[in-house]
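Thread: "does anyone have the structure for this chain?"

Original post by V.I.:
We have the sequence but no experimental structure in hand. Need at least a predicted one for the grant figures.
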Amino acid sequence: MEKMNELLDKYFKGETTLEQEKELKNYFIGTNIAEKHKPYQALFDVFAEELEDKACLPLKKVWPKQQSVKRLWIKAFSYSGIAATILIVLWIQRPQQSDNYAIVSGNRIEDPDYAQKYAEKKFSKVNEILKNSMQPMKSIETVRQSLQPMQKIGKVQKQTDEVENNIQLK
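Reply from O.Q.:
Generated one for you, tokens below.
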């Protein structure tokens, strides 16, 4: 009994030899098992059942499949080739659109005559606005031209003042 306690302690610590483990298995297979060892009997019964089970087919090792680098490159090139082909086909089959168009008020206009007439109409409006805004500039120019004789009088006045100053100094 004491020997079985020591063997169980060693077994659970992982320190038993194969012979000692056989002795434990034989002890638990038998009918003369102490009451305090009964909870461990189920553990050793499972081991006995495992010994009775036999594999039906021969076992073979199953290694995880690892693809070679060459296969990965082949797959990568084939997938990229397929993608490139799809893009080229879609680019060729896209609806043909004219490159000459104008966008007016958010609408696309492809008729060149309409676009030209619309542009001429807008340019004439801009020209009219500029002409009207230049009107005050023209009136300022006429005032400037009419003031030129006055500027000459101012120059003559300065010259006479200089002459008078020169005469008084002498």
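V.I.: this helps a lot. DSSP finds five helices and two strands in the chain.
O.Q.: and The mean pLDDT is 80.
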